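Q: My labmate handed me this sequence with no annotations at all. I'd like to see what the chain might look like in three dimensions before we decide whether it's worth expressing. Could you predict it?
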Amino acid sequence: MRSHIGLIGIGVMGENLALNMENHGFSVSVFDASIEKVNLFIARKGQGKNISGFSSVGAFIDSLQHPRIIMMMVPAGRPVDDVIALLTPLLGESDILVDGGNSNFQDTTDRTRLLEEKNLHFVGTGVSGGEEGALRGPSLMPGGSKAAWASVQPIFQAIAAKLDDGSSCCEWIGEEGSGHFVKMVHNGIEYGDMQLICEVYDIMRNVLKMTADEMSDIFSKWSQGSLNSYLIEITSDILSARDEDGLPLIDKILDKAGQKGTGKWTIITALDEAIPLTLITESVFSRVLSSMKDERISASRVLTGPAADFTPERNSFIDELEKALYAAKIISYTQGYQLMRAVARSHHWNLNYGGIASIWRGGCIIRSAFLGKIKEAFDRDPDLQNLLLDPFFSKTISDSQQSLRNVLVQAIKSGVPTPALSSALAFYDGYRCGNLPANLLQAQRDFFGAHQYERVDRPRGEYFHTNWTGRGGETASTVYAA
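A: Here is what I predict for the chain of 482 residues:
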């Protein structure tokens, strides 16, 4: 009896996905460059299950039913290409390779095209939910060779997380690298969500002088309301955790954050597409700044902050923090969806934006009640240009913007850094402003570089150059329009 699917890469995610598949009635063959890993997995977690381990890639491939489906759970970059090169000569027409890692979406597009030329199918799928999600039900974002969807759909939709109505947190995203692209944006939004929560936590402990237990109680309360989300829930759990000495574990953790690169890719893509992804960008740079731990310690001995030590009335300010966090969250997702629209337009992808919000509602790291509101917005208007223009979101941010302003004023007075919260308000004020000071900026560019400008009293698309000093010529430079 041949296996339904093969899995390469027996790390934490690979193991749990294999167990998840087997738990849903699919037989699984597993292979890893480390034969020891395969043997340990089969002898321990895989014992007594319909999972077969193999020590040679040839035997592994021969164990699979046709068309063969092989899911790779290996690090992004060169390792994926190495595995593809190893497998391709051994595969037959219409066999399917699935990359379940966090690969760059442009690499996935290239791989899809390359393998389709060899009459093979390639699927790049985002997998979100971490270790627990892989085992109990992740959010899956597959894209690539559409012909492969019929074969992988029964497996993927079975193992994915389920919503209360029974729908699966897995739908076909689209062509080429669109699945990995949507996962990249998911991760960028995740960066933003986490940074916003961290800034609110910082205000709680340094402005309101709250204890870890008090903060845990607040986040627990918030998780029952409009801010209900996985990240809010685990923040409450983290703040209530105790070290062996009985003191809060959070206070023992070094304030130096790591990252794996998807946030950086999101920023680079936003720059390529001229999308103001300011909040996620600040979130990535906040991690970079945190990594300068030794330098920050040195600077703290030299540089001073504000002298004022004013603590606002706690209960009312906590209410404002909740509204401020929700308002900033709206901005973060607004920017993420702007990026998705821009890239979909550039690559001629037909993305289902409401559907994407729906599959993010369960299994993944950013799962939240908030995503249901995004789904409703795109149900009302599938061509919605910007989330802020939806009636629900425009009213909500209008009602909560003053709280965001009040929180930022207090943070600034107290010297607490709030890069993500601040960028949220700056974006909102910029986006709602019919007249920005870019007229002066464009005049400056024309003054020193003859880059030209448009006029408010002439039709759009006509460009003008002024000889500002009387010493310049009439020759103008090329026009650059972002």
